[in-house]
């Protein structure tokens, strides 16, 4: 039972972190929150610890992808702001 409790905490932290990252999602925070909630509800009945670990790993991958998306957006905005287009 101890392992299930620690996995429950990991899942909760993953949800909170993804929810936090979803604030700046391009399609809007509400859209992201609905999709996130639906995905977590779809997998709420999974009991196998190995499957739960796989789902947590997939969620962590999504977090990294979101961070990369935001970094790229920030980089593009800075590049556009500070470097003039010499071809035009």
Mean pLDDT: 88
SSE-based structural type? mainly alpha
Radius of gyration (Å) = 18 Å
Q: What count of helical segments does DSSP give?
A: 3
Taking pLDDT < 50 over at least 5 consecutive residues as the criterion, the unreliable ranges are none
Number of strands: 0
| Main sheet characteristics | none
Order of helices and strands: HHH
The amount of helix comes to: over 70%
Strand content: under 5%
GO biological process, one term: negative regulation of oxidative phosphorylation
Family: Belongs to the complex I LYR family.
GO molecular function: enzyme inhibitor activity
Protein name: Electron transfer flavoprotein regulatory factor 1
What can you tell me about this protein's structure?
It is built from 3 helices and no strands. It is mainly alpha-helical. Belongs to the complex I LYR family. Residues 10-63 form the Complex 1 LYR protein domain.
What would you say about this model in short?
With 88 residues, this protein is an all-alpha fold. Helix content is 77%, strand content 0%.
Please render the helix and strand layout as text.
Layout: H1 2-21, H2 29-42, H3 49-82
Helix pairs in contact: 1-3
């Amino acid at each position: 039972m101890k392992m299930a409790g620690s996995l429950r905490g990991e899942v909760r932290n993953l949800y909170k972190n993804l929810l936090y990252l979803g604030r700046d999602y391009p399609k809007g925070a509400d859209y992201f929150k609905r999709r996130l909630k639906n995905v977590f509800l779809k997998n709420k009945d999974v009991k196998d610890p190995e499957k739960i670990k796989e789902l947590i790993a997939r969620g962590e991958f999504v977090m990294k992808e979101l961070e990369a998306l935001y970094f790229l957006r920030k980089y593009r905005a800075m590049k556009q702001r500070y470097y003039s287009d010499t071809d035009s």
